[in-house]
Amino acid sequence: xxxxxxxxxxxxxxxxxxxxxxxQRRFRIAFANLDETPGVTxxxxxxxxxxxxxxxxxxxxTLPVDMLxxxxxxxxxxxxxxxxxxIAARVDxxxxxxxxxxxxxxxxxxxxxxxxxxxxxxxxxxxxxxxxPDNRAAGRIAGDALGAFAQETWPGEQVQGVLIGDVxxxxxxxxxxxxxxxxxxxxxxxxxxFTTLDTxxxxxxxxxxxxxxxxxxxxxxxxxxxxxxxxxxxxRNAVEMQRRQSDxxxxxxxxxxxxxxxxxEKKEIDPNNRGSVLLGSVAYYMDxxxxxxxxxAMRLLAGEVLPPRTMTKHVLVTAANVFxxxxxxxxx
Amino acid sequence: MRTVGFATCVGLSLLPLLGxxxxxxxxADCKSVVAPSPFGPDDQTGATNRVTPQVTKAAxxxxxxxxxxxMANNLVDGVPLFGxxxxxxxxxxxxxxxxxxxxxxxxxxxxxxxxxxxxxxxxIDGMGHIGIQDCYYNQTPMGKYVxxxxxxxxxxxxxxxxxxxxxxxxxxxxxxAAGKLKPxxxxxxxxxxxxxxxxxxxxxxxxxxxxxxxxEADAVFINTGWGDLFQQFPAQNATYNGGEPGISKSxxxxxxxxxxxxxxADTWAVEVIPGxxxxxxxxxxKTLLTDNGIHIIENARTDLIxxxxxxxNRATFFLNxxxxxxxxxxxxxxxxxxxx
Lengths: 332, 340
Description:
Chain A is α/β, with parallel strands linked by helices.
């Protein structure tokens, strides 16, 4: 019955009665977020669940949708309960962001039974198209940038790689980023040796860890890849305190708000800070997911078959393009 | 293309330091970037061309009781400012010192020095304020016309009269009536929250509320209630600056088709912030100023005239506003009054 209702709906939309037209049907879309607990960050990067939810709130403003928001709070049981609540609320579509595979299998079964389509964020949900980062590609961008920098700036010189981040117990995503980084750098510097510095999830440890390396390796150049932006900022501190700016370059992952600001809120990656040892950060745009995912949801509701996986388009953001990627609105 | 634009922007800011002439850095084909002016290829005035004697005479009919309602905020230290902007007055009162008076009549005097940027407080944006790359109103390649001190084209001295009809659209009432008002807790009076999109349908509903039909050369003001935070300065400056309710891109386009000369609001940018598309910067500014020559007035005080409209069931007035002939300026603070 539910499937027949969806088919009819799709026909209506395709016939020109779609969501973009005023006065036509509005859709109820639920977004179950991974974790909105204050201070909890997502996917090993600096973005919070609150930021991600806000992106859905903003993106929904101009779409014919009424949003229902759920916080899975990092709890698989709660994720299942939230999915049941969304089904009970008879939503037209569920956007699920939950890391637990077993719970996702349950949620997938519940949705299939109810005939409610779904979109999965970052972690797979049975039967649902997936939207998420291309971790390997993002890592590769950073690695390419570091390798290119070394070739241009320090041709023929001795160079060493340093990888800083929460690498002790990496999930698949972090492992893919690390692989991408090393692949990228070794494209330019095939024999480059890496030193891995584990922050253990405490980015501020990057300062002390890197300081030790800088004190023991005074002669060489260092290509420093960090797995999150806060670690990059602490690594920059270490480089500056040891006065090794001419020997080091840092590229990070994430581009969260700790590292870029606006016209009045100045931060590390800024058009007026082009000489920074922190070259840039690869953008994951997790604070814009709503703008990417809700249009996909509308296409799905219109009956379109989405590709099994849609990936974020990652970009290396530096002082030269930060205001184009994140136009400041504190400048009027 | 985007790199060129940024390089142009940076290049312009460095020109005075490098002693270079601007034309070498003007890189965009402005005819493909900005729409031509409806007032001719040499126009520097913009929409105030529409304020003809007939328009002013018709607007004068709005003056029925002579009641004047202020529509500007006080210009004073502590109000919300943006970026590196500042405003500071320095009082010169030397002759008031004992023995420094002039003549046997002991005349004294005082003066002020304004150390202020022009886009502060209740202010108007001129044609030289907003462009795309180096292309400004009427396809003007501004790189050719920028000096260290002022613009050689599109300065606010080119504005004509603002003696026209003003119209207040009370978006707060519109959203209340539609049952969709989501206020901000920091507002002491009802306000639309930051990020609230005001569409052309909302504007039309606001006009219908007072049975007003826009006509050519009208000056439109929108009451969002957000100005409540401005008036709480400095306590709510961060909230005020952190975003705002405002008109959508399509609402701006619709207003342009109505051939208005001004769009003002009790917000710092008139347009919704965060914008509808977070990858775009101030698109409403571009639509109104750059493409259509329509002035923007920011930080206007609209609550009083909105209340007056509700009280009298009348949302139109004679706009009493003049702008200093500041040669080559991109904008200026102003005073505004609504006379009914």
